[in-house]
Amino acid sequence: xxxxxxxxxxxxxxxxxxxxxxxxxxxxxxxxxxxxxxxxxxxxxxxxxxxxxxxxxxxxxxxxxxxxxxxxxxxxxxxxxxxxxxxxxxxxxxxxxxxxxxxxxxxxxxxxxxxxxxxxxxxxxxxxx
Length: 129
Prior knowledge:
Elements: H1 2-25, H2 32-54, H3 59-73, H4 82-100, H5 104-128
Helix pairs in contact: 2-3, 2-5, 3-4, 4-5
């Protein structure tokens, strides 16, 4: 009886955890305007971070700005762009690490690379829609 009870409880818990994931995946795809705005907002935040780096802004503020850009890029939801978005997100993560290590010159190069990647995503998205 004890084994059956444990099995039943674990089965109920597994099902209860699976139900929200099915519900979350049923969310409608974002519109063209939503994705376009997410790309533009992310690119603007990366370019703002580069400008702040050039102006000698404190590293902690720069790290927060890169984190904000990484949060904004999560709204770039499009199957065609997912790989490029993930790669660009990795570049932002690298820039954040470089800022934490006070490697400002390297961080600027990495942020410029990220900006170029988001520009490429923007052009790719515009050409497919």
